[in-house]
Amino acid sequence: MEKKENKKGSRPHKMQESLPDRIFHVIVLILTITTFIVITYPLWFVIIASVSNSDLVNQGKVVLLPKDIRFYGFQQIIRDTRIWVGYRNTIVYVVVGTLLNMVITMPAAYALSRKDFKARNPVMLYFVFTMYFSGGLVPTYMVINKLGLIDSPWVLILIGALNTYNLIIARTFIQNTIPNDLYESAMLDGAGHFRIFWSVVLPLSKAIIAVEVLYYAVFHWNDYFNALIYTSSPEVQPLQMVLRRILLQNEAFAGGSGGVQGGYAQSSADQVKYAVIIVSTVPILLVYPFVQKYFEKGVTIGAVKG
Amino acid sequence: MNNNQIKTAGTKKRGFFAQMLHDWQLWVMLLPGIVYIFIFCYMPMYGVQLAFRKYDFAKGIYGGEWVGLANFIQYFTSPMFKTTVVNTFVIAVVSIIFSFPAPIILALIINQVRQEKWKRTVQTVVYIPYFISTVVLVSMLNVMFAQNGGVLSDLLKHFGIVADNANLLGQKQYFVWMYVFSGVWQSMGWNSIIYLAALSGVDPSLYEAAKIDGANAIQRVIHIEFPVLVPTIMILLIMNMGNILNVGFDKIFLMQNTLNMGVSEVISTYVYHLMAPTAGAPQFSLATAVGLFTNVVNFAFLMGTNWFSKKTTGSGLL
């Protein structure tokens, strides 16, 4: 509001502005431009390197614009089944995993948001305690082993099915945004908790649902740790594990054991790497704009009092 | 209101089981979460006893004989104790020093931008790196900071920031900086969201009053905007401190190579290497003991910071 007024009357306003203030705003502008460049340049570089001749990239000649444009890297990826198997698995883990996360988190958050729920504090403590104390890697591995989940796709869906931090922000959001009167009138109409949750709470919680979906989906998308610990067969491993083998362990280029990669030179191999980075990052980037409008609202209200 | 009062009065008289029956729908809604947490968090906690036992491959996790504190003593007296603890603390402390204030400063700067369109653009762009996975981030580091022809290592060499023959990915002295600054790059924007949100709640009349009093822009930042952020800062700082020894396994593990192992082996990667060694038998008991040690230290830091925060600023987590 205030800013709009400033804009309208910007001329006279700027005239009155003191010299230190003007210098300050120039510095702010310079700092934001620097930040912009620092953030975007590495991303831009990956894009231009993915379509440039890798020999030129490696000689440091590709800096601002692509040179000797070719799409060899992308062509290789299209033919590489490992990536698509990883992709398929990751999509399954993200979709099914996030769905499960929401089915567990949202009802629990509602229950814990009810101030008239007598067991609220002990149950909350039951959850919060696990944020600060855990059995550790080995005991968790042993439990998952006992359950027969090692190397099963289910382990990557079940692990992290409820994140206590996400539970807390959802609970805080519901507690702070849904007025008590709504509950009271719903109860007068004879609605039970299930009905209230479904018809009152969920429709009013779109912002926090967006936030939770984003948090959980990004977790599943990026998770390689659990896949590293609990899985070993390539058929069940997610994209990140495939990426790790291709990008960091240079698996594909070690001797062409995987089939398609045969005998292409290291320079082309590098182009494949940049292309892999793009192909594996763009989908998750595309998700963000869809949830962004809810995001800032949701994250704020949910986190006011952690 | 009246209805509510009657209800509360009524509920007070119920016994435990009657109360549970009354709230049965809420319990049903909590059940999946309670069961999940029980299986994946509390059952492993029971397994922590392995830290005080000798692991027996035949008898399983609860079957080995009790050895008291032997596993802890083995860790504390091994040369890896000093290495892992020092590495963990160095990385954690340098991380907090740089990556904790970065989003605060960024939020304060973005908040000063008056060109709305530019402000939106910067805000959207700084979020992007957050969505890049750790695997991809580390591989970007590997290509851009490669010793020969890495576009960013060339840039640093050109400006004389590092020596001409520096190997940023291999030499030990660069590891922490690569780790910390790539982390700042990745999460600064994302972490600034919460501070920007807090700043949007500043009462506009405060600005007016400050202007009338003749405060300049910097004074307004220091005296109006920064104080608004303090409670958020303290809560996030406590939460960060409570995780001090959990410095991201994910990125460090991927950044490790034989050259930098001396500075990159932290407690969490050490636990993994004990459990899944490249050669020899896994040392489950020792790994559990090391994990438990981390937990205890983290908890102490959390409590310590919380206590300190309550004393100094009045706001705390617990």
What does this 3D model show about the protein?
Chain A is built from 16 helices and no strands. By secondary structure, chain A is an all-alpha fold. Mean pLDDT of chain A is 83; it is low at 1-15 and 253-263. Chain A folds into two domains: 2-70, no CATH class; 75-303, MetI-like fold, CATH 1.10.3720. In chain A, helix 6 crosses helix 10 (164-177), helix 6 runs antiparallel to helix 13 (206-222) and helix 15 packs across helix 16. Chain A is globular. Chain B has helices spanning 2-12, 16-22, 24-46, 70-77, 79-99, 101-112, 116-127, 134-144, 151-158, 172-200, 204-212, 217-241, 249-255, 261-264, 267-275, 284-312. Chain B is mainly alpha-helical and 318 residues long. Chain B is built from 16 helices and no strands. The model of chain B is unreliable at 1-11 (pLDDT under 50). Chain B has a domain at 78-132 and 176-312: MetI-like (MetI-like fold, Orthogonal Bundle). Helices cover 71% and strands 0% of the residues of chain B. Chain B is globular, with a radius of gyration of 26 Å. The chains are: A mainly alpha (306), B mainly alpha (318).
Write the layout of secondary structure elements.
The complex is a heterodimer of chains A (306) and B (318).
Chain A: H1 2-8, H2 10-16, H3 19-51, H4 54-58, H5 72-79, H6 81-113, H7 120-132, H8 137-146, H9 153-158, H10 164-177, H11 180-188, H12 193-204, H13 206-222, H14 225-230, H15 239-248, H16 266-303
Helix pairs in contact in A: 3-16, 5-16, 6-10, 6-12, 6-13, 6-15, 10-13, 10-16, 13-16, 15-16
Chain B: H1 2-12, H2 16-22, H3 24-46, H4 70-77, H5 79-99, H6 101-112, H7 116-127, H8 134-144, H9 151-158, H10 172-200, H11 204-212, H12 217-241, H13 249-255, H14 261-264, H15 267-275, H16 284-312
Helix pairs in contact in B: 4-16, 5-10, 6-10, 7-10, 10-12, 12-16, 15-16
Summarize the structure.
The complex is a heterodimer of chains A (306) and B (318). Chain A is mainly alpha-helical and 306 residues long. Chain A has helices at 2-8, 10-16, 19-51, 54-58, 72-79, 81-113, 120-132, 137-146, 153-158, 164-177, 180-188, 193-204, 206-222, 225-230, 239-248, 266-303.
